[in-house]
Structures
1.
Amino acid sequence: MTLIDKDIIAKKRTGRQSRNQIFKWLFFLCTMFGLAVLIMLITDTLMDGWSRLNMDFLTNFNSSRAENAGFFGAIIGSLWLMLVTTPVAIILSVGTALYLEEYAPKNKFTDFIKINISNLAGVPSVVFGLLGLAMFVRALALGNSVLAAGLTLALMILPVIVVASQEAIRAVPASVREASIGMGATKWQTVSRIILPAAIPGIITGIILAISRAIGETAPLVVIGVPTTLLVTPTSVFDSFQAMPMQIYSWVKMPNEEFQYIAAAGIIVLLVILLLMNSVAIFIRNKFSKRY
Amino acid sequence: MKKNLFLTALLMSLMFILAACSDSGSEEDTGSEEGSTEESSEGGSSADVTGNINEDDEQIAGEGSSTVFPILNLLVEDFNADHGVAVELGGNGTGSGFSALIEGTAQFANASRGIKQEEIDALEDAGIEWTEFLVATDGLTVAVNPANDFVEDLTFDELNMIYSGEAENWSDVREDFPEEPITAYGPDQSHGTHDFFNEEVMDEEGVEGQLIQDTNQVVSSVVGDQNAIGFFGYSFYQENQDSLKPVSITSPDSDEAVEPTFENVMDFSYPLSRPLYLYVDNAALEENETFHTFMEFTLKNAQSAAEEVGYVPLEDEALEEELSKLPNLEQ
């Protein structure tokens, strides 16, 4: 009994425990800080924009008369943009990830490609805008069309999806893969029936993040020269178009104070569309994650 | 299992296509509806436009100054309502406008300053002939916080002292001003307004102070800071009259301080009055009949449009002169 000095233990224990408590609350505060700022931002936007949110706002084109200004052209333009960006980005990046993880030989060249792709994820969006301007708008003479902007944004989000897909594919246990090949399945059969379905939840998480970034991106569109006012919606991918973030940006710059509220309403619509798109993706993800 | 994946993918793409289709369908409805209501209110103003619309003409596009943007945006809207032609319009800055004109991606460029020599050279290299039109007038307005009870008027030299950083306190500007620090705000280099101020007041020596990209932020900075001074386009002052105090300006060649009022800006007696420009591709003006009609419409309605969005219109005589610059297509 005398071997244990209760005083020393009590002294040491309180120190450790209070440190434990301090760090617990510190991390809690970190979490709350982000959340509080987000809530403040959303309430502020909602308060500013709520009065402007009505059917007219959703069905009118942009206008210099504050009472007529609407978001219609921008909403449709952004949907067209996503219609090009999403499939192009998904096909290119999932293809890249599959090649790198499943087919590519393990050598220096493959490593070099992998490092480059990870680095591409950190390149500022303006640079992709300049790339799009030089390549799609001028060299391929696509002009400031949906196609040119869509391809530019697809390139921009490509590395994000590639990296996420790579992680997801790598996370598929080797045993499953080996079992499939052991049963006599070809590489493609293994990839399409075993690996892809198992990796889908991870891939979709990457896609959600990437699309959310693409739909709110302004800088590349400014560089490409997307118009701020266009009173028609595109009829093909070769037409020029408006985009939601560009429209919001141009409203914020207007001298008339009323446009600040209109911009806030625009932000709300952008957020709602973003959430809708994400919830479809999350629905698909949950459907697939149950099986594995 | 595989079927499931394909089915979901198919469903998703179908949803997207459906959404796009139904949207473009309903767009025609709203378009014509809007058109008819607009026409009834605006019908009178454009009755004297004589030009024609040619369906085969190339899409009209314009790019340029965010200061000129609200006026042109209104004209584009009314032109679409009256003539059913949608013009593409951007507002990414005077510089972008000239680039687009040089590239040939826009037929007209909006500018809140006159064309620079390097832009003239670039247009010549590209083989583009151009015409300069004035569309409206703007008065670069200098304003202080309403709580500031000592600044009523300033000379060019005093403004120069403030925006070169030479004067740190108000007492450095004029002896009878209090010894309070000056905080100077202005729009940043992306704005024609900045260039104009730099040229007129600073003798191209550069503007010092807190330069901000969004002009609305310049206004709110002045509103929130007792010792602040800021400058911006007349319309920004117009929209915030109650929370700003305008400063009268004395030009170097007169002793009299002139207030930035509508009349003073319009007749250029206010020393920081400046014209707002449209630079137009001559070839487009001659070959694109619809564009010629658009320009005629723009000039004839420029006065009412400028006034509606809080700018100062051109005087009648000046407008006549601008209209006479349009080529006559009948020949």
2.
Amino acid sequence: MKFRRLIFANLFRKKIRLVLTIGSFAVALFLFAFLAVVRGAFNRGADVAGADRLVVIDRVSIINLIPLKYRDQILQIPGVKCITHNNWFGGVYQDEKNFFPQFVIDPENQRQVFPELVVPDDQWNNFLKDRQGAIAGARTAERFHWKIGDRIPIKTTLYGGGSWEFNLDGIYHGQRPENDETQFWFQWDYFEERIPQVIKGQIGWYVLRVNSPDDAVRVAKAIDEKFANSPNETKTETESAFAAGWVKQFGNIQFLILTIGSVVFFTLLLVTGNTMAISVRERTSELAVLKAIGFSGRAVLFFILTESLVIAVVGGFLGLGLALLAVPALARALNGMLPQLVLEPSILGFGLLAALAVGIASGILPGLGAMRMRVVNALRRV
Amino acid sequence: MVRVDGNGGSQSLIRVRGLNKTYSRGGEKIQVLQGLNLDVDKGDFVAFMGPSGSGKTTLLNLLGGLDVPSAGSITVAGDEITHMSGSKLTQWRARHVGFIFQMYNLIPVLTAYQNVELPLLLTKLSGSDRRKHVETALAVVGLSDRMHHYPRQLSGGQEQRVTIARAIVSDPTFLLCDEPTGDLDRKSADEIMALIEELVGKYGKTVLMVTHDPVVAARAHTTLHLEKGVLVEGKASPQSVLAGGAA
């Protein structure tokens, strides 16, 4: 492109200004990517939720336990394919800061209900045979450098407190990058054996799969009606609704992130728009000379838009590249405090598109002004 | 042959008839040019003089297609430019006009070579052909050894030489010079005028020049004075002399 030299010479005219403007883009795009990742993390439960999965909890609160004996009654409801149950354990490994979610699972049905969390068969079979066996998510195993066969003590203040010992029999992997690989599972029988008598036979929640997503509403209604007016009434909802409800406990994250993101981009638009306007105004006479010697108004507009787009693209790539490096590091640093942080290609794509849009928006007004500028008037200002 | 009586032949390179230009300023109409006629042949070197505000630069802008007249016609090499659209006029300028400005108006972030190359970027010439043209133009103005210097690394006279090289590189039909020596010392001004004379004498260029400087104007073949919106030949009126713009 024969105009390349002219465009780049103008871009590098004020190097500090160029660096600062590109820096603004980079910071804004980094912030955008980071906010989108956090939003994604909070919505992850809803995103990865199976359309055919329902969650059954106590109607009052998830912290209330519900009877294990409900399982057989639920299974009798037409449309229910399989069911499993979980309890929250709430322990820590070695130190308080080593938090990760531990769940008591029903080994017979866990894999049918959560097929996307894959455990190799040989490891699963060893787990089934080992009353103190445990399965860890790949990220948690990696975080604590666990390997199969390790003896893992988990301290808890719940269920009578004390340290519980587990044998790591297997490691599960998610089929998708968004799947949570931080959980730690152990057997219901081992749990039931050690907990106080008063809570024996009580589970935290059920997760079940229905034959078809079309059955979900009917089955959920049937379950809640079945246990209506009982000492433990239930609340059944789809897994995605359950996950969304969980996120709502933290406040309106979606609105907060959208607001911050909009402010960031609007500020970026003002900053770059102002920069481009100053840049064009500074060289009014030069642009007039270009038009005098035969460059069309459209060519002048093209030069200015290209400059702002180059700034946007370079800044965008820098910011998103920084996010690509920072998000995995942040995910490691958070140690599972937040759901899986994933910088998805769609975030990168949208970020780049947003950068291009800001680039065009910031260059278009000064560019149109230069395009329409009357050469005679501009030369008179010299 | 330069004529201002409107009786020039149709073979004139530049033919201006009944040119009017009126500006509006604060609701007041100011008529700068009033039925101006001009005929310029190929190879002529014409200087326009006149007091400030007499319309010299306006005339130059109209001749260069940078502005449109209120009435009248301008025909250059058979093309009437007064009715051309903006985009046509832009293309016409690229092909037919070489501009030389008082303040040089070079792009400061481009080297002398790159500044001279600018008009050629609008042509379909290959990179190597552009290089040949640029090197030739810079050789004509005596700046072959400064082609990779930026404007800030050149003297005023050298900058004006680069402007001249930029004006001639695409071999335009005529050159328009607006106070080409206005920002130069006498020695540099003499050198620039010698160069312009060389362009006329040796290369057959047609040059129309606006100047306040009688010494500079004297180097042209013909000096025309703008008085009351029309051109007159020969000596200026006493009023023009008192206004400091006449020979």
